[in-house]
C-alpha cells in the first residue's frame, strides 16, 4: 500500500515536469519583438552620376634650356619655388655677347659714315653732269656706292639684332607662371644648347584632369541629351588618393574626336582651379560626373535593398509594427541611396538594419535610423 502511494507521487512529479505550466506559455508569448532600424522612403535630389579613373595633367610643363653657351654665373631661385612669368632663373656669363653687340654697333656707325660720304659724292656728280664736267658713268658709280653703303647698314643692323638676341639669352627667365623642379646645374657649370634641361617648370593653376569614357556610355549620354532627358553640362568632382573630396568643381573643356585604339574609350578632359597646388601633375584621382539639373526621385538607403531569385525587395514596417515583404523596382543607385521606380510610397518605412532577424508578418521594435 505504501509502495502504491510512492509510485503515484513519483508519477505526479514527472507529469508536472513534463507538462509546461500556463505561466511558461505566457512568458513565451510575451517574448520581446526583434529590434530593427528603419528609414522612410523619401523624395530627394539624386542626380545621375558616373565615376571614372582620371589622371591629373599639367596644362603647361616645359624643360628650361640654355640657348647660348657660357659659364653659369647665378642661379636665382630655390628648387620648388612658385614663380611668375618673366622671373629671372639663371644668368650666363655675358661678356662675349656684349662685346659682339658693341663691335657690330661700331661697324654700323662706320657704314653710316660711308653712306653719308657716298651720298655727298653722288650729289656732287649730279651737279657736275649738268655742265658736262663729269661723265654719266661717274654718276652711275656714285649711285651704286650709295646703295652699297645702305645695304651694308641693313646687313649690319640684322647682325646687331642677332647679337642682341644672343645677349638676351644669357638671362634665362620663366616663360609662364609655375612651380620649379630640381636644377640640374650649379654656378660655374658650362651650359649651352646641348646641355639638356636645366630645370623643369610646371604650371599647376589651373590644371587638367583627363579620364577615359567608354564609347557605349558616351553614345548613350549623347542620345539621351538629344532627346532632352539629360542636360548637356555636368558637374565634375574629384576624389583624391587620401579619400577626401577635392573642394573645387571642374569644367569639361575637351572631348576627344577619336576613339583610343584597343580600349574603345574616348578621352575627356576637365579643368580645375588649383590655387593651393593640391592637385599634382600625374596624380591618379576618381572623377565623378553629375547632372547639373535637379532630379527629384523616391529613394531609400541602399542597404535596405535585398535580392533573391525573383529580384529586389525590401522589408516594410507598417503602422501596426508588422513586417511586410515588398517587391520593388530599383532604377539606379547614387550616393548610397537606391532610386525606387515602383513598389514604395513616400514615407513608408523600410528596414535598413536587422533584416536578418525578421520574417513577413511578425511585429518588430522599429527605431528610426540616425539622421533619418
TrEMBL record:
The keyword Oxidoreductase does not apply. Residues 102-170 form the Multidrug resistance protein MdtA-like alpha-helical hairpin domain. It holds the Pfam family RND-MFP_C. It is found in: Cell envelope. Keywords: Coiled coil, Signal. Residues 1-26 form the signal peptide. Its main location: other. One of its GO terms (molecular function) is transmembrane transporter activity. Residues 297-356 form the Multidrug resistance protein MdtA-like C-terminal permuted SH3 domain. Residues 206-292 form the Multidrug resistance protein MdtA-like beta-barrel domain. This is Efflux RND transporter periplasmic adaptor subunit. PANTHER family: ACRA/E-RELATED COMPONENT OF DRUG EFFLUX TRANSPORTER (PTHR30158), MULTIDRUG EFFLUX PUMP SUBUNIT ACRA-RELATED (PTHR30158:SF3). The keyword Manganese does not apply. InterPro entries: MdtA-like_b-barrel, MdtA-like_BSH, MdtA-like_C, MdtA-like_HH, RND_pump_MFP.
Amino acid at each position: 500500500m505504501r509502495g502504491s502511494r510512492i509510485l503515484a507521487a513519483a508519477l505526479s512529479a514527472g507529469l508536472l515536469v513534463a507538462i509546461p505550466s500556463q505561466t511558461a506559455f505566457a512568458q513565451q508569448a510575451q517574448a520581446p519583438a526583434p529590434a530593427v532600424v528603419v528609414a522612410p522612403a523619401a523624395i530627394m535630389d539624386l542626380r545621375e552620376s558616373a565615376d571614372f579613373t582620371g589622371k591629373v595633367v599639367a596644362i603647361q610643363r616645359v624643360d628650361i634650356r640654355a640657348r647660348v653657351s657660357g659659364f653659369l654665373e647665378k642661379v636665382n631661385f630655390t628648387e620648388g619655388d612658385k614663380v611668375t612669368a618673366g622671373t629671372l632663373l639663371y644668368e650666363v656669363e655675358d661678356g662675349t655677347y656684349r662685346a659682339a653687340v658693341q663691335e657690330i654697333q661700331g661697324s654700323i656707325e662706320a657704314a653710316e659714315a660711308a653712306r653719308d660720304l657716298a651720298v655727298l659724292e653722288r650729289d656732287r656728280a649730279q651737279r657736275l653732269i649738268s655742265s658736262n664736267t663729269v661723265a654719266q658713268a661717274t654718276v652711275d658709280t656714285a649711285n651704286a656706292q650709295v646703295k652699297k653703303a645702305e645695304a651694308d647698314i641693313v646687313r649690319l643692323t640684322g647682325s646687331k639684332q642677332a647679337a642682341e638676341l644672343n645677349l638676351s639669352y644669357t638671362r634665362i627667365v620663366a616663360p609662364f607662371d609655375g612651380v620649379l623642379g630640381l636644377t640640374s646645374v650649379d654656378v660655374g657649370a658650362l651650359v649651352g644648347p646641348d646641355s639638356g634641361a636645366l630645370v623643369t617648370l610646371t604650371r599647376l593653376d589651373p590644371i587638367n584632369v583627363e579620364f577615359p569614357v567608354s564609347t557605349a556610355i558616351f553614345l548613350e549620354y549623347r542620345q539621351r541629351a538629344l532627346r532632352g532627358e539629360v542636360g548637356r553640362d555636368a558637374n565634375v568632382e574629384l576624389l583624391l588618393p587620401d579619400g577626401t573630396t577635392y573642394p573645387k568643381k571642374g569644367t569639361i573643356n575637351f572631348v576627344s574626336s577619336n576613339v583610343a585604339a584597343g580600349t574603345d574609350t574616348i578621352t575627356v578632359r576637365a579643368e580645375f582651379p588649383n590655387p593651393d597646388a593640391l592637385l599634382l601633375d600625374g596624380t591618379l584621382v576618381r572623377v565623378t560626373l553629375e547632372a547639373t539639373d535637379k532630379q527629384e526621385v523616391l529613394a531609400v538607403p541602399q542597404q535596405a535593398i535585398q535580392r533573391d531569385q525573383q529580384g529586389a525587395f525590401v522589408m516594410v514596417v507598417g503602422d501596426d509594427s508588422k513586417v511586410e515583404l515588398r517587391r520593388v523596382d530599383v532604377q539606379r543607385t547614387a550616393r548610397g541611396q537606391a532610386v525606387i521606380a515602383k513598389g514604395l510610397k513616400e514615407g513608408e518605412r523600410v528596414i535598413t538594419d536587422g533584416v536578418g532577424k525578421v520574417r513577413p508578418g511578425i511585429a518588430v521594435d522599429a527605431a528610426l535610423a540616425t539622421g533619418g
